[in-house]
Design brief:
By secondary structure, the chain is mostly helical. It is built from 5 helices and 3 strands.
Length: 166
């Protein structure tokens, strides 16, 4: 099995979990922040959805330069918008992962801000860290936000306390 297909197998399972979590985000609480330094619920949910678009940035391109115009951030107006964006990005990730030859994963990838280089790593390490581990980190944060808002959490790796009536 190719490297891309192995990453796709993991992403496919995790995308279903992410979708279940995004689907319960209460958009009427979009401005909620558990702390003044925290992202808003809307921004965090949007970030969780948009991470699936990073496969393109990390595999099709050889660098990400924050000094270049990244364009306008995507606007969301409902939970359904965020879920639809997530689904669209996962579909694109599937194509990218299934089309990326193994040798591409060994090529270097750089994150920079103009002349300042933050790091250069093989693309396989970049996608593990930025496309998957980063997603898991922020998805965990999102579960805390939802718990604080008393939103029943969907099971991802088995039932939750909400599923068991606890």
């Amino acid at each position: 099995m190719s490297i891309g297909k192995r990453f796709w197998a993991e992403l496919q399972q995790e995308a279903a979990n992410t979708r279940r979590l995004l689907a319960v985000v209460p958009f009427d609480k979009a401005d909620f922040k558990p702390h003044e330094k925290s992202m808003s619920l809307k921004r965090l949910a949007s970030h969780v959805a948009e991470i699936n678009g990073w496969w393109k940035e990390c595999l099709v391109h050889d660098e990400l330069d924050f000094a270049k115009d990244a364009g306008k951030p995507k606007e969301y107006h409902s939970t359904e918008d965020i879920v639809a964006w997530h689904d669209e990005l996962v579909a694109k990730a599937e194509i990218i992962l299934n089309d990326t030859p193994d040798e591409e994963f060994a090529k270097p990838w750089t994150m920079r801000q103009g002349e300042m280089i933050f790091f250069t790593l093989p693309k396989a390490e970049v996608v593990r860290t930025w496309c998957l581990n980063h997603l898991y980190h922020h998805r965990g944060q999102l579960t805390v936000y939802l718990r604080l808002l008393n939103v029943p959490l969907p099971g991802m790796y088995g039932p939750t306390a909400d599923d068991q009536g606890m």
